[in-house]
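Ticket opened by: R.M.
Priority: normal
Category: complex prediction / small molecule

The reporter submitted a protein together with adenosine monophosphate and asked that the result be attached to this ticket for the collaborator who will pick it up next week. Submitted input follows.
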Amino acid sequence: MTTGDSGPFLAGNTMDRPLLVSTLISYASRSHANTDVVAVDSAGITTRSTWGEVGERARRVSAALVADGIRPGDRVATIAWNDHRHLEAYYGICGIGAVLHTVNPRLHDDQLAYILNDAADSVVLVDPSFVEIAARLAPRTPSVRRWVVLGHLDSPVGLRGEIAYEDWLDAVPGRATWPELDERAAATLCYTSGTTGNPKGVLQSHRSIVLQTWACCTGDGHDVHSGHAVLGAVPMFHVNGWALPFATAMSGAKLVLPGPDLSPEALVNLIEAEDITFSAGVPTIWLGVVQYLQATGRTVPTLGKVAVGGSAAPRVLIDTLEDDYGVTVSHVWGMTEMTQGTSGRLTHRVERMERDHMRARQAKAGRELYGIELRVVDEEGADLPRDGHGVGEIHARGPWMCGAYYRGAHADPDAFTDSHLPEAEGGWLRTGDVGALDSEGYLTLTDRSKDVIKSGGEWISSIELENAALGAPGVAAAAVIGLPHERWGERPLLIIELFEGATLDHAAVLHAIGPRVASWWLPDDIVVIDTIPLTGTGKIDKKALRTSYSGHVWPQS
Ligand code: AMP
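Result attached by the on-call engineer:
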């Protein structure tokens, strides 16, 4: 008998092998040594390598880091695109127990400086296309003692310890041996894209990465397996590219990394040339691809499935991909705090339903996935029934869920319930998303809590209105915000971006939305904007829109 916190128990005789990021690449480079890893870099050069070579070069990255004095727990940042060097860095950094800190280059300089200083990164690996950003950040980030340029360094930039990647690797003979770390040790750090306040660091352990990667490879996850050629269209600087750089190694799938060019044409070219069978990305990427396919008449016959998430996938996108191009859409919800949070796989029963019923489920934000437990609570924190109607805040918890933000933001009652408890025992993550759960575990998201529109005391879902508006003629993109209204407290304003050459047909837009929502939800006004502003992670920047339209005058009714 062994004694634990909950009393004596009979311990199992299982081997206690640690779940480490290095085991993923060790497996891939051992058992899938000849499987292709193809990458396009920011110079437009395509490099064909294999999991065997990625494993080899990752050990050289580790050796170079050790020679630079990097020790377990030290933070090493990457400001990079999806390419082979970034992939080598992923494994080289984690392999020695250092922390892979992926940085979103689209953030404002002040946020970037804040993030690098908060993490106190010692080394930064930066793509040549970002050296200007690096030059601006270097004087503001004293902890960084080495800047490695992931490509050629034509002329000196003046960064501390600057060196070109290949020179950095060549300077150190041999390869590092990866230690057997504690699986609870930190592996990756990624800051949330919060539109208010300072970004918060999500520090994932090795165990967490391996568990969420396993989930990604299950049939109810993204079903990544060795039969796939995967196009990693989710930036590796955001939520570890939705775990695809890890899942392709765990399964030995072929991996294709597109670099910075995520234009529809470039993606379709890669899908065709590399026989891509699965990809993942935010709705804007796939809306662009669909519009391109429609305009050119090209098709994507090899592409069997795409995972869409990060923001709501409009029904029209799901219908077009499925019906016109034969691409199965797996619509999922997730966050930096947990990576994939729901399953987009249709169950046996739902798959046999009449088309409209099936699609209605697909348009929801996925179904509860084993490992991420969900609940919905009212304003007092009481559980709401899973009846599809009880709308409240979504809470989540699980073995790979962030339990506290980096550097002590744990006792943060806005982010976690029971935040007085140690994170291991702690409560639930308050996701800040508002929605409902139904009896099948489907999640319907209505809004971010800060974007909720309350009209006459009742909620209006901006997500549903945006979705409906996207089906209207001429509408390329849509955003809905709530603005103050004398009578109702708040009313929805629809802001649309039109396709080139299209004009706004007010009545046609309302006509398209009408059948999809309650009549009192219809927007009180529609305005056209050249470009809907997006945040650094490609989501609609509602804060910016609320500021721009704060003086909007409602039409007389
Ligand atoms: P991030 O941590 O930057 O990936 O942002 C996570 C947030 O994106 C979530 O809390 C949601 O608000 C939003 N999100 C992710 N997936 C979806 C989805 N399928 N539908 C609607 N919103 C989503």
